[in-house]
Amino acid sequence: MNEYSGYRILIVEDERDISKLIEEILRSEGFYNIFSAQCCAEALNIIKTQPPSLCILDVMLPDGDGFFLLERLREYSQAPVIFLTARGEAADRLRGLGLGADDYMVKPFLAAELILRINAILRRTYSKPEKMQRLKLSDRYIDFETASVVMKNKEKSLTAKEYILLKKLYENKNKIVTNDALCMALWGGGYYGYENNLMVHIRHLREKIEKDPSSPIHLITAKGLGYKLVTNDKGDKNE
Ligand code: CA
Predict the structure, then answer these.
(1) Is residue 162 part of a domain?
(2) Under a CB-based contact definition with an 8 Å cutoff, are residues 54 and 26 in contact?
(3) How far is the CA of 131 from the centre of ligand 1 (A)?
(4) What is the pLDDT of residues 50-104, one digit of tens each?
(5) DSSP annotation string for 81-135
(6) What's the confidence (pLDDT) of residue 118?
(7) Which of 61, 94, 117, 227 has fewest C-beta within 10 Å?
(8) Distance from residue 41's CA to the centre of ligand 1 (Å)
């Protein structure tokens, strides 16, 4: 049993033996809300009426393929998807992952591996973010709950974009976060050509969080790569 045991798992698989096997594996791990469908139409019906927490999709199905199903499924659900298929070619794997599947496993598969992957995806998708603390940066601190920068006698609000940027950098503090990852966090996909906008937001953020924005000590540029939020957990030296 684990904290995700009650989550709804949908198995889409036209071969009954395999479907049963997957179900048994899941049940032995404590999952009990398991639905199964043998074709795309049946799967979509379940997705509309009993939204699943996670879907395990076969690729070759009698009324379409799993790739098609994933696209249709996305009209109703953002649940994570694992492909579990006999088609192990790189092109299929890339296609599945390219469509936004969370994982791609090839039959025959190990029960233990399937469970590990399912649990990892559920954790990644549904775990509650750890409560964000106040982040101290030299003479000021960031209050994530109110999205503001608090200094001795004044407070500055962060814009939504600045907040997203800072949060992303904070989650990866003291590590480089690439320009791509930052643009993705800010604008989702299709952000090409937004690097200049990113620079503008970084500049504004520096004006709020740095004592001297022109020579930053916390929001550091990693040339050609991205940015890094430098912070010392034990609290920065008081300056
Ligand atoms: Ca099949």
Answers:
(1) yes
(2) no
(3) 43
(4) 889 999 999 999 999 999 999 999 888 888 999 999 998 989 998 998 888 989 9
(5) EEEEES---HHHHHHHHHTT-SEEEESS--HHHHHHHHHHHHHHHHPPPPPP--E
(6) 95
(7) 94
(8) 14
Ligand 1 centroid to 46 CA: how many Å? 18
pLDDT exceeds cutoff 80 at 238: no
Query: How far is the centre of ligand 1, averaged over its atoms, from the C-alpha of 39 (Å)?
Result: 9
Of 92, 109, 126, which residue constitutes the final position of a domain? 126
Overall number of domains in the chain: 2
| Distance from Cα 59 to the centre of ligand 1, integer Å | 6
Do 100 and 157 belong to one domain? Answer: no
**Interacting residues of 140 by C-beta distance below 8 A, sequence separation 6+:** 149, 150, 151, 209
Please give the distance, rounded to the nearest whole angstrom, from the Cα atom of residue 48 to the centre of ligand 1.
22
Q: Which domain holds residue 61?
A: 9-126
Please tell me the predicted confidence (pLDDT) of residue 207: 96
CA–centroid distance, 17 to ligand 1, in Å, is 11
Q: Quick one: which of 160, 145, 171, 152 has its CA closest to 205?
A: 160
Residues 73 and 151 in one domain: no
Say if residue 54 is in the same domain as residue 150.
Answer: no
The string of pLDDT tens digits covering residues 116-130 is: 999 989 887 776 555
**CA 177 to ligand 1 center in whole angstroms:** 40
CA distance 228 to 38: 48
Which of 83, 108, 126 terminates a domain? The answer is 126
